[in-house]
Every structure is written in structure tokens, then in C-alpha cells.
Amino acid sequence: MIDLPFTFTLPMPQVIPSKVDNHIERRLSALRGQFLDQDTYSKMLATEDRLIYEVYEIKRPEVEGELLMGISIVHPGKVGKEFFMTKGHFHSVLETSEVYYCLRGEGYMVMETPEGATSVEVLSPGKVLYVPPRWGHRSVCTSRLEDLVTFFAYPGNAGHDYGTIELHGFRKLVLEGVNGPEIVDNPRSQ
Ligand code: S6P
Ligand code: ZN
Predict the structure, then answer these.
(1) Distance, CA 70 to ligand 1 centroid (Å)?
(2) Which residues line ligand 1 (CB under 6 A)?
(3) 15 lies in some domain
(4) CATH code for the domain of 176
(5) Which of 6, 38, 55, 97 to pair with 29, CA 20 to 30 A apart?
(6) Number of structural domains in the chain
(7) 184 - beta bridge partners?
(8) Which ligand is nearest to the CA of 27?
(9) What is the pLDDT of residues 16-51, one digit of tens each?
């Protein structure tokens, strides 16, 4: 049977899709080994396993030809000087891309290829970001009080490779500097 077209809305200000099939919550414990200041990470985790980000997914079959869509919400906060962020991943099918549309908040998309190219793009409301095939990606919220909210769409067959980032981290980090956020080299991935 053929699928019927469908619509949904992203009502402001919460921007939670009117149609949601899955809600993922990722907490501080899911980001073990990723933040530069590991002492502060351990101290924070001992106090509370803070909610760092959430994803609202609209389910579709995970096959070529489909698009998987949803909303990603990264909450504001820092571990030491490093802003809250997603785990980040490569797509298991490396030759798949992704589109992000920023709806609320301020932040960055930190990206890199397996060959070592890097790119860090600003995310602010109204901005569309195209992540080409091969680029691993992580969103970082740099707003002081507001969530970073993005809409995303990517191919149904993309899959997620989290292991590469869990092992090596991203080559670039986003830290709070004296004049705002700064992009710095990750000393642990050079
Ligand atoms: C999936 C897409 C987003 C992320 C979400 C959470 O390909 O890039 O839906 O899943 O932003 O990030 P992560 O790294 O935990 O999947
Ligand atoms: Zn992705």
C-alpha cells in the first residue's frame, strides 16, 4: 500500500512537533569521556545526571528513499568552560548527508571528516545548514539561558556511528572565552 503524504507543525515557542513517535533524552552520563575538563565532569555527575539534550523523532522506515525528521533540543549549560553538546556521530553510511534548520537559540555545529577536514558553523534562528556526505556532526548550545533548537532531516538508511567520536572526540571544541565562545583544538584528538 502506498504511503499517504502527511503534515505536522512545529508550534513556537516549545517547537515540539505536533506528531512525535519517539522522545530521546540524553543525560550527562551519556557523554562520558567527551568533555575536556574530566574532573569537573565527574564532580557534576556525582551531584546530578543533568539532562543535556533531547530529540523528538518522527519515525519512518529506515531505508533508502525515506527521510528521517525531527527536532533536536540542546539545553544551555557548561562542563567547566565547555558548552553542553550532543554526543555527535558519523552516519554509518558515510555517503549520506543531513539538513538542519535552526529555530531557536545560539550555537555551533562542529563537523569533521574521517580524513581530518574540520568545519564549525554558527547556528542561529533562521539559518539552514547543509551537512554534506562524510561529515561527522555535533551541535553545541552557546546560549546562556535558551535552548538550541534545530529541525533536521536525513536519509532513512544513514544509520549512526557513535563509536568513532566516543574513542577520539571531535578535533574542535567550543569553550567559553573572555569575549564569548571560542573554537579551540582538542588536545586529546591531535
Ligand atoms: C541524526 C541527526 C540528529 C541527532 C541529534 C542528537 O542523524 O544528526 O537527529 O541524532 O541531534 O545527536 P546525537 O549525536 O546524539 O545523535
Ligand atoms: Zn546525523
Answers:
(1) 9
(2) 26, 55, 70, 72, 86-89, 98, 137, 139, 152, 154, 158, 160
(3) no
(4) 2.60.120.10
(5) 97
(6) 1
(7) 173
(8) 1
(9) 999 999 999 999 999 999 999 999 999 999 999 999
